[in-house]
Amino acid sequence: MSEAKRLAAVKAIDYVEDGMIVGVGTGSTVAYFIDALAPWRDRIAGAVSSSEQSTARLKLHGIEVIDLNTAGTLSLYVDGADECDPHKRLIKGGGAALTREKIIAEASKTFVCIIDASKQVPILGKFPLPVEVIPMARSLVAREILRTTGGQPVWRDGIVTDNGNVILDIHNLSIVDPVGIERELNQLPGVVSVGLFARRPADVVIVGAEPPIVL
Ligand SMILES: O=C(CO)[C@H](O)[C@H](O)COP(=O)(O)O
């Protein structure tokens, strides 16, 4: 499966242009993208990173990491996903970086999502939906999720996000109304962000294959 991820990541380089600041996501597929971006280090203006993990890899390749507040609106954001439906709506956050990923996606004109074919689903929800939560609200939010969605929230024990928060993964959801669930969960006090990218889906999805499939 990693060869498919690599093929998708390499294809995403087609969207990189001279002088750009590139938004960079998190995960094993994005790691291939960062490696493919390395030869561009002197042609791009730098990268905005969604995690400490990606920052470390970008710096390893000598790519300058720029604060989003300095960068402003980005032309391009490249990131992976845990699930992708036919409308390019996504579940993300398997790597616990959903909040910063969501911020950068929102700040970007074009969001290119790079996946292997196993991530394509007709309806989102088989992959447990990650929700980043302020630590003191963990039990409260879990009870509310149980009451309002019927899904089973499971604390990702031992994981602390780059923002110092915890993750609840919601199991057994069939997400027929992704925009509605995203809105509803976002409103719960204590929720920092929800790993549903429905209000702001991907613009382009690249499925790793030989040749890559661009949707
Ligand atoms: O959302 C993410 C991290 O928070 C990742 O994009 C998602 O988990 C996919 O990861 P991978 O490319 O390793 O399969």
UniProtKB/TrEMBL annotation:
Catalytic activity: aldehydo-D-ribose 5-phosphate = D-ribulose 5-phosphate
Residues spanning the signal sequence: none
Coiled-coil annotated spans: none
Its EC number(s): 5.3.1.6
Keywords carried by this UniProt record: Isomerase
InterPro entries associated with the record: NagB/RpiA_transferase-like (IPR037171), Ribose5P_isomerase_typA_subgr (IPR020672), Ribose5P_isomerase_type_A (IPR004788)
Entry annotated with the keyword Isomerase: yes
Active site: 101 (proton acceptor)
UniProt GO BP: D-ribose metabolic process; pentose-phosphate shunt, non-oxidative branch
GO MF: ribose-5-phosphate isomerase activity
A Pfam family it matches: Rib_5-P_isom_A
Subunit description: Homodimer.
Protein name, as recorded: Ribose-5-phosphate isomerase A
